[in-house]
Automatic annotation (TrEMBL):
This is Calcium-activated potassium channel subunit alpha-1. GO terms for cellular component: monoatomic ion channel complex; postsynaptic membrane. Gene3D superfamilies: 1.10.287.70, NAD(P)-binding Rossmann-like Domain. It is found in: Cell membrane. Residues 656-667 have a biased composition (Polar residues). Its main location: membrane. The keyword Cell membrane applies. The gene is KCNMA1.
């Protein structure tokens, strides 16, 4: 019954299938009978394994017996040595034997150590050898995959079979490596039983047998798959795997795959061979990959049944494999999936693009902070932004933030990591980044902790790459000092710290001098798109100004040698650009930013100009060299004008605005080079022994005062009759984070104000909180404290809030509440409380006339209504709190809707589009986010901002504050007094004075040119009544709210009620004139409610007004002298009584005003402001 087969490629030989197992041919010298010899291959492996095991065990046995025998002999010799001491000759012999034994042991040890070094990964040679062995093992496994398509056993000619030759070479290398491992092994027995050793036993010897027998047996070569278990070790040797999760993931995957492939190889062997006891008759033809499939469906318990084991050996193996494989599948696969799922989605590395810069943004990465940053950084008004933004944060983004990144995928990438980890810094290529920007959490509960975190980020980044440029946000001003401790921190190389508290309070302080300025500056340094409105509403003019931004560009060489006013006029009139400042380079000192310098500053080659324009392209186009021909056409006329102006006679110069304001002359605005010395009149009157300014000469200074000396009770505050002051309502307690009130006071105490121009500052709030802030405030003059709460109307009335120049509402408790809508509750309640207050009009008039006066040349009852002043021009006396100038700080932008109950702003409206922000009555710290991108594109912008809003803070001053945390007084020297000669912001009224003719329907451009030519004042915006465009005739029904218009065009029509933002020059003689006037019978002329508004401009001659004013002034002077004799309260004001305060009232008719003053002067129950201010205690004079 035997079946027969015929082989077509072989001679016609009839052989039983039971006997013929392998094919043969005459070309291959194989067994002519075709008998299988699998047992020879298996026997070679078994003999090698068990033979070696027997030798090792035999060696260990003999060694043990030898040790026991030697131990016994040693005991006997020691006993004999005790009874019979060894002779001298025997001792020498024994010593030689010991040395020989030691030398032999040393040789064996050195060989063993050498072998250990060769196979270890501690050296480069060892790592190369280990990696090479693993690679060759994978190569041998691949050869097995190729040969698995052939029969299990076949005749092969070694000299013709290419794969057999390669496999032979691999196994020779494995044999040598096995020898090295054997030599280096400490325990030979355990080495012999290792998995890698077993793999070698069953794969290396059969290859040599194949060469000898000229036949190949697939056999157990699948065991090479077990080498995959070492895959994670190889990757660790190559420093590819560094984290525990990645190592664990690779380990699980390699164990699972190696077990799977090895089991599949065994099934492939037994199923294709059959059972030996069945004479191999029950075999089935299965490919290796079918066996792999079979093992997978078996482990997963699916078992489709399309492929299954037929042999007894295969089924028996499957029984045991199901137990182990199922357990492995059930434990390994879920863990692998979990590790893959937990793997950082954003854990890759940044690939730099040639020709494209990238920046790294880290810190507080949230949807709000990122969206605000990208909105400004990628604004279309910027020139082509060829910069890629790489965000690095240790928390993966949420869905909203992820969607934002996807919308900007061409320019934004996100990576998960921390800048404190050098590995993550390497991933984002920080060494090649153009800059690193660090965002701060403005809403954190602990600002100092947030600043400390950002400082640590700076330290980590600078430690990794000291040359990287860093721009970081800081919350507290005093924490900026810690950045100076970092050795590689260098502000000259572009490193900048944007202190939000410093700038926020600086913006608010400037609003105390010129209300609405905070809004204008915030819009200038933010990128806003132009929104066109056809209707004639206030939003139309406001949004036209919002579209303007600040840009810098180097001036054309055609401007060299011209003065700043000449170039400024040319740029505005002809080029539609507003030049407000330049970077001036001097031989004496480093380059500095000069805002609106006078005629004494001539343009140099390569001067950097600061422009206000709506588009960067406009600035670049007109400042480029291609525009020089246009300049050459225009400059000759301007040069002639400038030459004529410079050759005017002294008297004519005085008529053109170079003399101090006097009854018969124009204001004198003599300018001196700020980089040189002060004028002679200053030097002559310098008191070298009195400290009036800080050591830098940038701020007014006084001796430190105890807080008890500046505390006002409610009754004392009410008797003081404060006016023209700044009321700061502060919410805070003993546990609140410090706001940093020094940053609010410093701009109000800048040295470019004369002493009599300083506005008194009254803090209303918790005494416990103010005591913590007082350490930084005790060196500033005219500062007082009323302990109480801003929510108390009695406290507010005591400080005469209806007569203040500005009321500032701040809170130190904003970040302690989780609900964002409630973060500003205290500020909103205080603002609404003040606006709902009512005041007695008669008392306001009475107080105003008790010391009111009309400055020389002006027909008004108070100098507040002068054309040039630093604050709001109010009407007579405020009868309702809604007319009190207020600026409220907000944390949450959306809360702005609660400040004005009569506005129609939508809750979703952006902050800059809301009425309170446009009017300058609200300010949020979020508007400062745009400074990050503005500073990156131009670090000069931040310098200009600090110069404008901080009153003169410099890096040198920051270094001094870092040392002492307080201002240090300094003597008045020519160098320090020269620092006073700098520009400041003021407001110019149009309803009277030399510009009155332009105020009624005139062009803004004509006003711009006249103010620039005559008084060196640079106008840059308008503060207009909200309903001025309606031409309302009834002033009683007209809204008193104003809004900001930035950089109007030349033909913009003016109205009489407009207030003009301008940059005015410092007047050296204002202090002298003030002092001289104080000794005259008209000393009250020099007192002013708005001290910063003293720079009145000469009006037309009004004879009748002058007479009425003289009579009223005499009455006021008599009353003031009388009260000065009656009261001798200690005061910080100079003893010459030159600096009186006054309360302003509405402009009324001359006769009525004079009559009111004469009738009510003796009925005034209130004390004089000059003599009854116990909160203000200074001892210095104005020079």
């Amino acid at each position: 019954n035997s079946k027969h087969s015929y082989y077509p490629d072989s001679p016609s030989i009839r052989i039983s299938k039971m006997d013929v197992i392998i094919p043969f041919s005459p070309d291959v010298p194989c067994d002519s009978n075709g008998q299988r010899m699998w047992w020879a291959f298996l026997a070679s492996s078994m003999v090698t394994f068990f033979g070696g095991l027997f030798i090792i065990l035999l060696w260990r046995t003999l060694k043990y017996l030898w040790t026991v025998c030697c131990h016994c002999n040693t005991k006997k010799k020691n006993a004999q040595r005790v009874h019979n001491p060894t002779s001298h000759g025997d001792g020498i012999k024994h010593t030689k034997e010991t040395v020989a034994a030691l030398s032999e042991v040393g040789w064996m040890t050195s060989v063993k150590d050498w072998a250990g070094v060769m196979i270890s990964a501690q050296t480069l040679t060892g790592r190369v050898l280990v990696v090479l062995v693993f690679a060759l093992s994978i190569g041998a496994l691949v050869i097995y995959f190729i040969d698995s398509s052939d029969p299990i056993e076949s005749c092969q000619n070694f000299y013709k079979d290419f794969t057999l030759q390669i496999d032979m070479a691999f196994n020779v290398f494995f044999l040598l490596y096995f020898g090295l491992r054997f030599i280096a092994a400490n325990d030979k027995l355990w080495f012999w039983l290792e998995v890698n050793s077993v793999v070698d036993f069953f794969t290396v010897p059969p290859v040599f047998v194949s060469v000898y027998l000229n036949r190949s047996w697939l056999g157990l070569r699948f065991l090479r798959a077990l080498r995959l278990i070492q895959f994670s070790e190889i990757l660790q040797f190559l420093n590819i795997l560094k984290t525990s999760n990645s190592i664990k993931l690779v380990n699980l995957c390699s164990i699972f795959i190696s077990t799977w492939l090895t089991a599949a190889g065994f099934i492939h062997l037994v199923e294709n061979s059959g059972d030996p006891w069945e004479n191999f008759q029950n075999s089935q033809a299965l490919s290796y990959w079918e066996c792999v499939y079979l093992l997978m469906v078996t482990m997963s318990t699916v078992g489709y049944g399309d492929v299954y084991a037929k042999t007894t050996l295969g089924r028996l193996f499957m029984v045991f494999f199901i137990l182990g494989g199922l357990a492995m599948f059930a434990s390994y696969v879920p863990e692998i999936i979990e590790l893959i799922g937990n793997r950082k989605k954003y854990g890759g590395s940044y690939s730099a693009v040639n020709g494209r810069k990238h920046i790294v943004v880290c810190g507080h990465i949230t949807l709000e902070s990122v969206s605000n940053f990208l909105k400004d950084f990628l604004h279309k008004d910027r020139d082509d932004v060829n910069v890629e933004i790489v965000f690095l944060h240790n928390i993966s983004p949420n869905l909203e933030l992820e969607a934002l990144f996807k919308r900007h995928f061409t320019q934004v990438e996100f990576y998960q990591g921390s800048v404190l980890n050098p590995h993550d810094l390497a991933r984002v290529k920080i060494e090649s980044a153009d800059a690193c920007l660090i965002l701060a959490n403005k809403y954190c509960a602990d600002p100092d902790a947030e600043d400390a975190s950002n400082i640590m980020r700076v330290i980590s980044i600078k430690n990794y790459h000291p040359k990287i440029r860093i721009i970081t946000q800081m919350l507290q001003y005093h924490n900026k000092a810690h950045l100076l401790n970092i050795p590689s921190w260098n502000w000259k190389e572009g490193d900048d710290a944007i202190c939000l508290a410093e700038l926020k309070l600086g913006f608010i302080a400037q609003s105390c001098l010129a209300q609405g300025l905070s809004t204008m500056l915030a819009n200038l340094f933010s990128m806003r798109s132009f929104i066109k409105i056809e209707e004639d509403t206030w939003q139309k003019y406001y949004l036209e100004g919002v579209a303007n931004e600040m840009y810098t560009e180097y001036l054309s060489s055609a401007f060299v040698g011209l003065s700043f006013p000449t170039i400024c006029e040319l740029c505005y009139v002809k080029l539609k650009l507003l030049l407000i400042a330049i970077e001036y380079k001097s031989d004496i000192r480093e380059s500095s930013t000069l805002i609106n310098p006078g005629n004494h500053v001539k343009m140099q080659e390569g001067t950097l100009g600061f422009f206000i324009a709506s588009d960067a392209k406009e600035v670049k186009r007109y400042c480029s060299h291609s525009a020089i021909p246009l300049f050459l056409i225009l400059l000759p006329v301007l040069a002639v004008e400038e030459e004529q102006h410079s050759t005017l006679s002294p008297k004519k110069k005085q008529r053109n605005g170079n003399t101090r304001n006097s009854p018969n002359g124009s204001p004198k605005m003599t300018r001196h080079d700020p980089l040189l010395m002060p004028g002679n009149e200053q030097i002559e009157n310098m008191d070298m022994n009195v400290k009036k300014y800080d050591s830098t000469g940038m701020f007014h200074w006084c001796q430190s005062k105890d807080i008890e000396k500046v505390i006002l009770t409610r009754s004392e505050a009410a008797m003081t009759v404060l006016s023209g002051h700044v009321v700061v309502c502060i919410f805070g307690d003993a546990k609140s984070a410090l706001v940093g009130l020094r940053n609010l006071v410093m701009p109000l105490r800048a040295s470019n104000f004369h002493y009599h121009e300083l506005k008194p500052i009254v803090f209303v709030g918790s005494l416990e909180y103010l005591k913590r802030e007082w350490e930084t405030l005790h060196n500033f003059p005219k500062v007082s404290i009323l302990p109480g709460t801003p929510l108390s109307r009695a406290d507010l009335r005591a400080v005469n809030i209806n007569l203040c120049d500005m009321c500032v509402i701040l809170s130190a408790n904003q970040n302690n509440i989780d609900d964002a809508s409630l973060q500003d509750k205290e500020c909103i309640l205080a603002s609404l409380n003040i606006k709902s207050m009512q005041f007695d009009d008669s008392i306001g008039v009475l107080q105003a006339n008790s010391q009111g006066f009309t400055p020389p040349g002006m027909d008004r009852s108070s100098p507040e209504n002068s054309p040039l002043h630093g604050g709001l021009v109010r009407q007579a006396s405020i009868t309702t709190g809604a007319n009190i100038p207020i600026i409220t700080e907000l944390v949450n932008d959306s809360n702005v809707q609660f400040l004005d109950q009569d506005d129609d702003d939508d809750p979703d409206t952006e902050l800059y589009l809301t009425q309170p922000f446009a009017c300058g009555t609200a300010f949020a710290v979020s508007v400062l986010d745009s400074l990050m991108s503005a500073t990156y594109f131009n670090d000069n912008i931040l310098t200009l901002i600090r110069t404008l809003v901080t009153g003169g803070a410099t890096p040198e001053l920051e270094g001094l504050l870092a040392e002492e945390n307080a201002l240090r007084g300094g003597y008045s020297t020519p160098q320090t007094l020269a620092n006073r000669d700098r520009c400041r912001v003021a407001q110019l009224a149009l309803y009277d004075g030399p510009f009155a003719d332009l105020g009624d329907g005139g062009c803004y451009g004509d006003l711009f040119c006249k103010a620039l030519k005559t008084y060196n004042m640079l106008c840059f915006g308008i503060y207009r009544l909200r309903d001025a465009h309606l031409n309302t005739q009834s002033h009683t029904s007209q809204c008193t709210k104003r809004y900001v218009i930035t950089n109007p065009p030349y033909g913009f029509e003016l109205v009489p009620s407009d207030l003009i933002f301008c940059l005015m020059q410092f007047d050296h003689n204002a202090g002298q004139s003030r002092a001289s006037l104080s000794h005259s019978s008209h000393s009250s002329h020099s007192s002013s409610k708005k001290s910063s508004s003293v720079h009145s401009l000469t009006a037309t001659n009004r004879t009748n007004r002058a007479k009425n004013r003289d009579s009223r002034d005499k009455q006021n002077a008599t009353r003031m002298n009388k009260m000065g004799q009656e009261k001798t309260w200690f005061t910080d004001e100079p003893k010459n009584a030159a600096y009186h305060r006054s309360i302003h009232i509405k402009p009324m008719s001359t006769s009525h005003s004079s009559h009111t003053a004469n009738h009510q002067v003796n009925q005034n129950p209130y004390k004089s402001t000059n003599n009854h201010i116990p909160s203000i205690r200074e001892v210095e004079d104005e020079c």
